[in-house]
Amino acid sequence: MTPDLVSLVIMLRNTRAASMAPDQGRAVAAEFLRWVRIIHPELSAALHDKTDMPKPYTVSNLNGLSLPVRGTVFLPENSEVWFRITSLSPDLSLFMVDKLLQTLPTEIQVGDAIFKIEEAIWEAKKHPWAGWINYSELIEKELMGEVSRIIRMEFISPTTFHTRGVHMPYVLPSLALRSWLKTWNAFAPIKFSEALLETADSALAVSCYKMRSIAVRYGKATLVGGVGDCTFNIQEKDLYYLHVIRLLSAFAFYSGTGAKTALGFGQTRRVDQSYAYRE
After folding, report:
1. Where is 131: in which H helix or E strand?
2. Residue ranges covered by each domain of the chain
3. pTM
4. Do domains 5-131 and 136-276 have the same CATH topology?
5. Cα separation of 234 and 277, whole Å?
6. pLDDT tens readout for residues 9-23
7. Farthest CA pair distance, the chain
């Protein structure tokens, strides 16, 4: 049985030295959508839906790049980098596991660099950002038993939020919670009441904040997002909502956080989330 949620990590190695801009989320996303269009045109049309609904997938930037020098990253020949694609929809997960994995090309071009596709991984034991799980398993693990009120979140790509007509570059706990709940209710078989958001500002508090701001060129605009670790303390008194918040923080491994998660932003995981990295 194909799982509902999938995180597929694709390992790359460049065949010759290259220079590129550090922000390649849009280019990687375009390549993923091109693969879908070639293999499954009907699914491709659905992924391009212009509604305000969250996208049923996320795509990361290239990971493993060196620090940029004057806005450019240099990749020596034979450098290893990777990106990940996550699916939040059973239909898309089925496509990724049964179709995409069987038809991946041998090479991919990102910017001016040509990479050989070395491996595609969706097993957690092979990569910490790969994994899979069903919604029912996620619900069972998070809505039952004792839970900690401390959740430590790691944001490995710039995370920004579109709120009140502007982009907010700070990872505020209330905005993160709103983002996770909106995406969960768009795709999960069990919906949670938005009444949780009535107390979102007080439900989570920041107990440790080790974040820094990074500017990302996005077309003609520049967006600023936060990268790093942030520890939240769950203040919610209602035990049910406490479990729901824990569940949503675990879901962030697949959904990402904030705006433009389909273009490299908001890649997220809860640090203690060992069960999501399926063996």
Report:
1. strand 131-133
2. 5-131, 136-276
3. 0.94
4. yes
5. 23
6. 999 999 899 999 889
7. 56
